[in-house]
What we know:
By secondary structure, the chain is α/β, with parallel strands linked by helices. Helices cover 43% and strands 16% of the residues.
Amino acid sequence: MKEYDFYIVPTPIGNLGDITLRAIEVLKSVDLIACEDSRVTQKLLNHFDIRTKCLSYHKYNEKERVEQIIKTLESGQKMALVSDAGTPLICDPGSIIVKELKSRGFCVTALPGANAVVTFLSQISREDEKFSFVGFLPKTEQKIQKLVTDYEDKNFIFYESPNRILQTLGIIKSVRGNAQIAIGRELTKMFEEILVDKIDNIIAHFENNQPKGEFVVMVFANDDMCEDYDVQKKVKLLKDKGFSPKDISVILSELYGYNKNNVYRISIGK
């Protein structure tokens, strides 16, 4: 089996039983574990009788830890990187050290494992597999509104905290109206909750039930926007072939059932 210097190891997002056998094996075999919060990681290590020492590595000390980690690896020791929950580098620290290690020729690998987005999506029925993950939303209302507008033609997913969720849903509603959304919290835990409904009903639910736990949210694409986007691509293709707007509107309405007037409007750039 190939030897690696540095392992990126996902940890459970809630249920400790979700850790993989390989993750336990790696965490036991390395000489040092870089972690976000040693108190959180130590609970996991104690549960699986893992006695490896920890080194704090979080977004506030990433840069200063780089040389220390490199010296550890240069001495011949092996290291693993974990976050408090889930997969490092997915809205968690790790990008700086991984980039530096690869640029210096160290062997880095990642283990498969827990991720909140994938766990959430596996329970949500969708028309297709396409989605955009935007991580945590910006802090200001104006920037959130712009992001919601920019992704109106796509299913987009984000993380949110319990103290901001109602405010964030209100901002989304101001842009998208009573849009369809899916929302999940406490994933893999005893009180896991998954809801798929119109945003008004979701807001009412959490106004009557205090939001708890970390949230994953998907705002479904605006179907009208999706159709317009699809029409625009087909219109461009036909215009490049020399078809007139009138011909294009007839062709696309006949072939795909699109509204002829809407196709013509798009074809003439209105």
